[in-house]
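Q: For a teaching session next week I want to show students how multiple molecules come together into a single three-dimensional assembly. I've collected the sequence lines for a complex. Could you give me the predicted structure tokens for the whole thing so I can convert them for display?
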Amino acid sequence: MFSKSIYTFILVLFTLQVLAQNPYNPNKYQEVWAPVPRKVDTGLDDKTPPSDAIVLYDGTSLDQWVSTRDGAAVPWTSENGVLTVMPKTGSIKTRQEFGDCQLHLEWRSPAIVEEEEGQKRGNSGVYIQSRYEVQILDSYNNSTYVNGQAGSIYKQHIPLVNASRKPGEWQTYDILFTAPKFNADSIKVSSGKVTVLHNGVLIQHNVELKGQAPHGKAPLMLQDHSDLVSFRNIWIRLLE
Ligand code: MG
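A: Of course. Below is the structure for the complete assembly, covering every listed component.
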């Protein structure tokens, strides 16, 4: 009987000692002290791309882009700092190919809403690696299939919420992309993942990209879906 009490006492002491340590604090074996992060200048406002970003469209030059049809100059219009789809001239893509990245872009669907509904209203899209479409659509007051509304990973992932602004208002996408990895035998060893913030709101949370054949880096693509969607302030950071 006595020895049982001793054991209980020791157990209580041990439990108190464990509880005295904050279980949410890493112990010293988990602490990390290096490397020192390199500096990135973020400018004085949120319109300025980070200093280590590749600026893909700053409102003037389209040098970073070509037509997907023939690799020639971009047939879309760039006026007053805004890039706008020229319907039925085809999509455009970057000259440079990208893997893991952080992408920022701003887009706007037409202010004047015509009779069309569903997929015919302010449709474009940003294709990561020319393969995975983050849908661009006027989804403010426009029902369509949910895996094809604004912010969907087209036909793969429905956005967590609908963070759409009114047609005619500028909207932002901030996209984090981890490319799928393939081994020497072209077997996929890890899936691609994507996170998307729409107007600062998390709408895709590290979702897994499915069903793609082996591939490496590839251009970013913007879709011509025959609607007058506009873009500005497009930049990308390499995460390699
Ligand atoms: Mg689209």
